[in-house]
Fold this protein.
Amino acid sequence: MLRQFELVERVKSYDANADEDAINRAYVYAMKMHGSQMRASGDPYFSHPIEVAGILTNYRLDSASIVTALLHDTIEDTGATSEEISALFGEDVAKLVDGVTKLTRIQLQNVEAKQAENFRKLLLAMSEDIRVLLVKLADRLHNMRTLNYITNADKRRAIALETMEIYAPLAERLGMQEIKTELEDLAFGELYHEARASIMARLRFLEREGGYLVGQIMDELDHTIESSGLKGYVSGREKTPYSIWRKMQVKEVSFEQLSDIMAFRVMIDEPEDCYRALGAIHASYRMVPGRFKDFISTPKQNGYQSIHTSVIGPAQHRIEVQIRTQRMHDVAELGVAAHWQYKQGIGNVAGRQYHWVRELVDILEHAQSPEEFLEHTKLAMYQDQVFCFTPKGELITLPRGASPVDFAYAVHTEVGNTCVGVKVNGRIVPLRTELYTGDQVEVVTSKAQKPSPEWESFIVTGKARAHIRRRIRTEAQAEYAKLGKEILQKRFKKEGYDLTKEGLVAACNKLHLEDRAAVYAAVGEGQLMARQVLEAIYPGVKPDQEPKVVNIVKAKEKGRAKGDTAVPIKGLTPGLAVHMSECCHPLPGDRIVGVLTAGKGVDIHTIDCEALKDISGDTDRWLDLVWDSDRIGGFHLGRINLVVLNEPGSLGALSMVIAQNRGNISNLKIVNRSNDFFEMDLDIEVTSVRHITNIIAALRASPAVNSVERARR
Ligand code: MN
């Protein structure tokens, strides 16, 4: 275990301005808080945070990161609180420790491969500061190094799997090859113990057999570089058992060639000399076609730079050679952490490392100091997404602003189509609630539910929108057909003709429509007039075209006299084939007329609506409508116009009266305001015209109300 002064010395070796005092206090605090807690290894628990801090000194991290590493388990495993840490070590450290604690609390185990990418994104999204992720990676590395002390095999396996699927790829994404390789190899040893052991045995055997060759090859390569007048050195590196195993899996071959187990590196001082070194090597040895890759001119997304080639080397052995500078090497091994070391004279090379995080690049190029870079590096790339869980722990990724309805459609189309309610983190919330990362969402479904047109106002995903539109279109078609059939039946009856199946089928052709259902739907949607259908079936008929212009009084009389030809709007959902107009807000029980509007269906107005005067006199578009019953279920929006005394308590008195009469105010708009009065429009949810009439009567009795009436426009 690293002693206190050793840790401080290590940090000071690369950062003369390190906050020595904070590191000392954190060291002592962690020891005190973890007290006599033990690790599975039998070591005192506090050895763990100290080792994690030690790992991070290899990456030359700043004091705040080291302090965070020392404190990273205190909130989760001891009585420490965020407030206490903030008071002792400052707000920044408290935030970082909170961040690590948050990551620790996510249950990632039993991760399926297809979910792994989502979990990786979740971790990135939750690590608002990159230091949180670095501490977490070091934490995981130390836990993996001591994994063998855990006695429960299932637990070991779960941790190893999670490391392989989540943490190693994250380290790679940050360009930290060294951590990635070690995590992978430790996880590999746990998950495929036998495979690793046999690869190791084979490696040792081949090493004994051909070990002298490695030295010979290195000498020859060294000579090649030197005789070309280049400055640099050559190193040989044994591949890890895991990378050998991966290669064997992918290529389905065993490893026998030296190139399967060794890679040679030529380290060159100057970047432009890398290509000269390549030329020298290709001039001395035959290159293997198809193996050459230039990651210097085109770095990998995580910033990796190197030239790769394979040649038939000394003694006819095929060998792989990587050519790079020391700096490219450090960036490859240390990744994001190498940044600090090359802060001076930073070029595009380090900038490119964060190519996959546009925001990060920006910060990199504009940050004044490594500290500032650390401070302001927000892992913003997944901030436009939210990550929510199903009750079974499956992760669903959604765009920011998504609602439970989007979530339901993301789970399954049927779940979306039938969702009636939702619980977020165990609480029932409205369907339009915005979801946040980490929310657990439970969708309540009902077979009776249909997608509502209203959902379109708050959903954000294309999938939800497409399904809702398709379902509404289907529903609307059915309603158009239903309405169209009623319209035709009433019209034919009024004119004294029979509407027969045979007649309609014969008319389809003339009307260029596919079948009877299409004729009904076209009439209901206002695309085809009932008169046109009549003429198609009974050519030469002179339909009753009087009156050309329906005035309101006449329509009233007509409705009263010929009630049996009025079309009932029974069973039609407002918003699909029939629409309650915004001007007069018709209610069940009101005398109503409909106006067919092409492509929309029927607009319903009260018979005395002022807006009817403006609607042109095409009588074919006018429909005599009746409510099927005054007691149509559900609530409808009624609008009243009020003049109220402008004095304290008026609005309260008013809403009290409405509530006592079981009305629900859904909108309130002040139209006019003077010293004495204000005038407003009030939208109230009511069941029928009788209901709103009662409310109006009650309002008239209120001393606060000057006048009140239903809005007519
Ligand atoms: Mn830990």
